Amino acid sequence: MNGLLDLLTEYAASDQLPMHMPGHKRRGSRIQDPCAIDITEIPGFDDLHHAEGILLEAQKRAAELYHSEETHYLINGSTAGILAAVSGCTSFGGKILMARNCHRSVYHGVLLRGLESSYLYPHSTGDMGINGVILPEDVEKRLEEDAEIQAVVITSPTYDGVVSRVGQIAEIVHAHGIPLIVDEAHGAHFPFSEELPEDSVSCGADVVIHSLHKTLPSLTQTALIHLNGPRICREKIRKYLTVYQTSSPSYVLMAGIDECVSWIRSHREKMDFFLKEIRVFRDGLSGMKRLKLLHIPGMDPSRILISVRGAGLSGMELSEMLREHFHIQVEMACSTYVCAITTVWDTGEDLERLKTALLEIDRMQTEHMFDSSSGKRSGCSDEVLVTEHVCTLLEAEDRDTEYVDLKDSVGRISGDFVVLYPPGIPILAPGEIITSGIGKRLGQYAEARLEVHGMEHGQIQVLKEGMTGNGWKSDCI
């Protein structure tokens, strides 16, 4: 029986084209033998949690690269940074305003701090069926309505590359005297070309989290957190970084971060060259008749979204066709589209191979296989649904739960997170009412064979009937 290393070695030797993270695309690192440099905190190599030497200087280089006042290495991924940011910018039991399409790590931060969450919903993209931007006017309205909000959290860019007007949002949030946290995990490459959207550090956000490994040549699990301005307690955030990160940080991962920073400083011109190739690639898809390249003004051009709504396919079916027939693995498949992640380490030949495959599938669907009746899933949307919660995440955590069939769950209260993964955005959070629309969406995802965490064998976890607390009773919903 082959172990994981055997399987990984075999996969690495195959001709599968990785149109997904990590951004080094399995070729962009000088680290050849990780065991040779895998050490602990021995003299001369500093301590991440009390950096005074080489690691402090390395983090300063990262801060300089991103024009940040203070930057810290994250070797537990962006998740650790998000947890530290949420915890460090709020008091226990306080209130936070967050985008409903935030990654589940934001929700976990809310849970751990016992926070009351208020939601911002992304602007609709109409028939595109994906999450749009967070509107500044929505942020302003919510902050004017509730003076108890202690911090604002948004995701920009989204998993799909959609970028909100962070600068305007930051001005509004700061006018209310509170910090703006931006999960910019998928935008670590933004500062390195004028053709890319403006990064959130430059836009004035107080805390910005970057996943280097998503779009730059760095190892999986490597990220950065940037701290700026006077509205945050940096000491408190630093304290929580020691809580949420391992006490034995990997020197292999930290070396990978430093290498990534050094590579960017020396190879900025490669980003512009890559983006020129992306323009050619996107132009080359303009002739598709059934598949459609999705685009929202201002979005990250390196994020490739292919809609299947007019092709008689589901996103999962398109993903499988690319993988099985063309040996191309995309990052994500939803019900109505697939997402491919391209980075500076993709070559022109890689992009040509993806373009050729998409055009061929489009041709097959147009000339031979297309049957309009087979596109029954095309009416589905992948935008987040409006939800209503009757208690906080922490309150729901302490309730007794039971499992029920999906068809019997409407009107009940969710007892756990239900998450489409990727991208990791909760469809349901604990304490939220399961509406008929949510039940229908989950049924569509199950039919499309998408990976939904929190829904096992057609059942989901709900709070038990008849339990009361804070004036609610689940069987009265």
Q: Report the structural category.
A: alpha/beta
What is the CATH class designation of the largest domain? Alpha Beta
Helix content bin:
25-40%
* Oligomeric form: single chain
- Output the CATH topology of the largest domain: Aspartate Aminotransferase, domain 2
By CATH, the superfamily of the largest domain comes out as Type I PLP-dependent aspartate aminotransferase-like (Major domain)
Radius of gyration: 23 Å
Tell me the count of domains.
Answer: 3
Tell me the fraction of residues in β-strands, as a range. Answer: 15-25%
The main sheet comes to: 7 strands, mixed
| Shape, principal axes of CA atoms | globular
Find the count of extended strands (DSSP E, 2+ residues). Answer: 21
Strand order of the largest sheet: 2-8-7-6-5-3-4
Low-confidence stretches: 370-378, 466-477
Give me the CATH architecture of the largest domain, please. Answer: 3-Layer(aba) Sandwich
How many distinct helices? 14
The rounded distance between the terminal residues' Cα atoms is 52 Å
What is the overall pLDDT average?
Answer: 93
Q: What brief labels describe this structure?
A:
single chain, 477 residues, alpha/beta, Aspartate Aminotransferase, domain 2, Aspartate Aminotransferase, domain 1, Ornithine Decarboxylase, Chain A, domain 4, seven-stranded mixed β-sheet, 34% helix
